[in-house]
Amino acid sequence: MADIRDIEVIAPNFKQRLSGVTSTIIQLVPIQRALGQKIAVLGPGLPTTLPSIRFRDLIHLWTAPAGRPCRVWHARRNVEMLPAIILRDLLRMKIRIVFTSASQRRHTGWSKFLIGRMDAVIATSGKTAAYLQVPNTVILHGIDTKRFRPATDKAEAKRALGLDPSKKIAGCFGRVRRQKGTDLFVDSMIALLPSRPDWSAVVAGRATGQHLAFEAELKQRVAKAGLADRILFVGEHTNIPDWYRALDLFIAPQRWEGFGLTPLEAMASGVPVVATDVGAFSELIAGGAEETGVVIPADDVNAIVDGAVAFMDDLPRLSTAGVNGQSRTSRSFAIEGEARAIGAIYEKLMR
User: Where are the domains of the chain?
Assistant: First the structure.
């Protein structure tokens, strides 16, 4: 438990169920602390390893921390903006409020009202910024480039996971459901693999509740195509960086995405990416001389096939794009860069 007197930034998490926002907090806060930002979390559903404060500690927000005129409250949801507005405007507590928006749709009147009362707004992508009607700063998410890194021995990385080291592997990682486009990946592999005996495919991720029938139907399609030994459903794994390191090509076939970290995780692992034009994918993947992958239209299995063929049938291009991806990610998308950019917003508000 952190001492509120030593805390300058509060990162609330008022949603118990694990989500992308919660995951962002879990990954960022230790990096922010390592960079000297005096931040603590507040709320349920977070690891006990993170520095945290209690709700009863909020009474101390009438007093500013040493050497500062105020603290910063970093909200990421409506339910976290509203109490902060009450604390600042009704109770006159010494806080300033930052809101990070990842939404890529028109905001409701209620959301607009809350966002309009923020002291600073961060957008997680240029697409997100286009939906905001207030001044904002675009700060793209980053990833842990120490955790996600290329394999030193690709064949051994495959062998360690029980995969055939003699085959190239295309992968699709994430929840198994229609929104994630898992069916598009499966259908593209059914179209591609019969004429490419040196390739196989892996689906890593979990189907839950209403999506179990969807997964079962996909497995039936694969079996009917006679590819059950080459399109593998491996379930959910905690060692997902090991699975990235075993890949030769990553497919991100989402029909919709708020931001989407999987292309960055693949690129950091030295794996080229074929991704649909959703979320921030078009802002993450480079073309041209420093190509790291290709961006294709969403919900189009033929586009996935064409994008994959461009790499499957051109191994020098595959190799070069993998090297470029690792370089681009470590240069532009390390999580430390995201944490520093957010820290600059905090500093501006606390001057």
Answer: 4-142+334-350, 154-332
Those residues whose C-beta lies under 8 Å from the C-beta of residue 184, and which sit 6 or more positions away, are 253, 255, 299, 300, 301, 304
- pLDDT (tens place) for every residue of the chain, 351 residues total: 899 999 999 999 998 766 778 888 999 999 999 999 999 999 998 999 999 999 999 999 999 999 999 999 999 999 999 999 999 999 999 999 999 998 888 888 999 999 999 999 999 999 999 999 999 999 999 999 999 999 999 999 999 999 999 999 999 999 999 999 999 999 999 999 999 999 999 999 999 999 999 999 999 999 999 999 999 999 999 899 999 999 999 999 999 988 889 999 999 999 999 999 998 999 999 999 899 999 999 999 999 999 999 999 999 999 999 999 999 999 999 999 999 999 999 999 999
Collect all residues with Cβ–Cβ distance below 8 Å to 162 and sequence separation of at least 6.
Answer: none
The reply to whether 4-142+334-350 and 154-332 are identical in fold is: yes
Q: Are 221 and 187 in contact (CB under 8 A)?
A: yes
Sign of the four-CA dihedral 279, 170, 305, 268: positive
> Which residues have CB under 8 Å from 24's CB, separation 6+?
76, 141
The amino acid at 301:
V
250-266: buried (b, 16+ CB within 10 Å) or exposed (e) per residue?
Answer: bbbbbbbbbbbbbbbbb
| Topology annotation, domain 154-332 | Rossmann fold (3.40.50)
CATH of 4-142+334-350, one of 3.40.50.10490, 3.40.50.80, 3.40.50.2000, 1.10.10.10: 3.40.50.2000
Question: Would you call 282 exposed, middle or buried from its count of C-beta atoms within 10 A (0-12, 13-18, 19+)?
Answer: middle
